[in-house]
Amino acid sequence: MAMQNYTIGRNNDCHIRVPEHLDRISRDHATLKVMDNGKMFVVDNSMNGTYVNGIKITPHVDYPVKRNDNSSFANDY
Q1: In the chain, N or C terminus with fewer CB closer than 10 Å?
Q2: DSSP letter assigned to residue 76
Q3: Are 34 and 8 in contact, with CB atoms under 8 Å apart?
Q4: Residue 62 half-sphere exposure toward CB, CA atoms < 13 A
Q5: Residue 75: per-residue pLDDT
Q6: Mean pLDDT per 10-residue run, the chain (77 residues)?
Q7: Rounded distance, CA 30 to CA 16, Å?
Q8: Which residues are registered as beta bridge partners of 63?
Q9: Residue 12 CB: number of other CB atoms within 10 A?
Q10: SS3 string of 4-42?
Q11: Which residues of 13-38 are buried (b: 16+ CB within 10 A; e: fewer)?
Q12: Parallel, antiparallel, or unpaired: how do β-strands 50-52 and 71-73 relate?
């Protein structure tokens, strides 16, 4: 099954780039994985955490997300 990965963070090469002054967001903060069948997962790669619907997810583990879920990074953004 094919998958697209989208990186999120402050690095210039991230697909979804966060401004440098938001320094609580890691340079490679998270990855959004989108499967061909429409299922999506977020993976936290950060020091300050990634949250889905207010719940801090376990680092380096695929966490399932849906279209209307609310994700935040470092619990600020």
Answers
A1: N
A2: T
A3: no
A4: 10
A5: 76
A6: 91 96 96 96 97 96 96 83
A7: 10
A8: 42
A9: 8
A10: EEEEEECCCCCCEECCCCCCCCCCCCEEEEEECCCCEEE
A11: ebeeebeeeeebbbbebbbbbeeeee
A12: antiparallel
C-beta separation of 64 from 40 below 8 A: yes
> Quick one: pLDDT at residue 42?
98
**CA pair distance 11, 27, nearest whole angstrom:** 5
- Tokens 């967001």 belong to which residue? 25
Contact 17, 26 (CB under 8 A): no
pLDDT of residue 2: 78
Question: 13 Cβ partners below 8 Å, 6+ apart?
Answer: 7
Tokens of 54: 């207010």
CA distance linking residue 65 with residue 26, whole number of Å: 21
3-state secondary structure of 66: coil
